[in-house]
Amino acid sequence: MSLPELAVGAALLVPLVLVLAVMLPGTRAVGMGLAPWAALPALGLGLGTGETLHWKSVLLGMWLYGPETVTRTYLIFTGALWLFAGLFAKGYLREDSHRPSFWGFYLATLAGNVGAVLALDVASFYLFFAMMTFCAYGLIVHVRDERAAGAGRVYIVMALLGEVSLLAAFFLTVGTRINVMLVDVARVVSESGSRDLIVVLVLVGFGIKVGALLLHMWLPLAHPVAPAPASAVLSGAIIKVGVLGWLRFLPLGQSSLPVVSQVCVGMGLAAAFYAVVVGLTQREAKTVLAYSSVSQMGFITLAVGLALGTPDAAPMLVVAVLVYAVHHSMAKGLLFLGAGLLPATGWRGWRGGLVLAGLAWSGLEIAGAPLTSGALAKLSLKSAEAAAHGPESLPLLLSLAAVGSTLLMARFLECVVAESPEQGSSSAGWMGVSWGLLFAMDTALLFWTPVGRESLPRLLEAKNLVSSAWPVLVGVGVCVLAWSLRRRLGWRLPRIPAGDVLWPLMRVIQPVWRLLTAGAERESVGEGKASERFQQGVERLQHFLLDEVDQAEARLSRLRQVGLALLVWLAVFLLLLVR
Length: 579
Hints:
This protein is mainly α. The protein has helices at about 5-25, 30-35, 40-45, 70-90, 100-120, 120-140, 145-175, 180-190, 195-210, 220-225, 230-250, 260-280, 285-310, 315-345, 350-365, 375-385, 395-420, 430-445, 460-490, 500-515, 525-555, 560-575; strands at about 55, 60-65.
């Protein structure tokens, strides 16, 4: 095996080996000591070079790493964020009694994330994506209280719905071929007789991970309860794997789907504004950041929608998505880790002042202020949108959404200061060091961005400086006006519960669920016959679905290796959960 192949193998195997080390009592101390550095090989691979690795005896013949722009870009920001979040966790969790459990889930989720980025075939991608999805549950419920358990339940239910959608999409895509290389997926989907259904399933399945509008409910519930380093990778890296899934499995550049395109563009714009409105009513800093992520992912949803409708502009739009992913990953990582650092430093004194200054700068990046990574991301998106001949009102709407982003960042700063003491209670230690290193990496990726570098000189053009400055200035002005009115009149926005649309949705789901369960009670004799007929209909549907499953088992019997691997990871997941 050559050195570049070893580099690819190390990026995946190092976190997997450390999972085992953390699980075994005899090696636990060593495993926990090395765990914060587990993402270093992935970052090194992104910055360096590697060769495609083929493990013939693993699954259906596992293919890993392609030296192309998408993979290398993802490895850089994914590796950097996981690395610095791990170093941050070393200080953040130093007195936590559940550290072994955290590191076990952390490493397993990291391995799934890196594996999904490296995967070159459908079977490998699904294995690692599922591994990442289920192991991330342990990061969300880490504190083991009722609130975390509730957020974990919502997360796991939505994750299962996403997995079902994706599994159906993958089987429709692969068909009788058992496995397909990802480079061929766009063509295969575009030529499939089930193309439209596959596209919808992919959009929904990965949309749950992305936090797309109406599929976002787990995000504002999970972020407040997860430890700060877990929230950083959830928002900065894990939801980007959903974006990666869109890029890998949608027929971008191959087919034009105008109706789906218009729906995605509309949903993306709606998410950009809706999440701002709901986020401004929140009282917790990390919940505000969660809604900010929903809003920012609306921009990516919009870009993917335009690519679905304009195949010729798809390459430029994919570049814009990658630039946006790098920017959002670094900025949101800084914000979540900063929210965990400020309580340790306090907001008074020079240390607190530095943290607040860094948080303010990261907030300006999210808002797209001039000469920031956010300005580069929005410039790339607007340029790609022009190439795709999007609606004439779109540039103005994107600028107005940036006003909303500014308001959300101001609300976050207000909340994070209110949650933090004036004077810190402990030394920042590794938390401060890792946060500073991530800040340096964020700055470096602006000037040496792995993608979209040709747009950098345009940031200095007068029209682009004005275009990126006025939404931020308007947002700051609205903030000042709102604060002054609140101080004089005592006026506050009414609070919308985190999860927003989940709660009215539950009012509909729960009665239906009671009917679907065997112990459902009839509320009246008059409704008994109708309920009985409904139940019989459900039973017929169940029998039909079971027959379909029986027929599919023959086709699935050749995938025993995939099932065995998933069972192994499920066993590891359950073992970590009970620790």
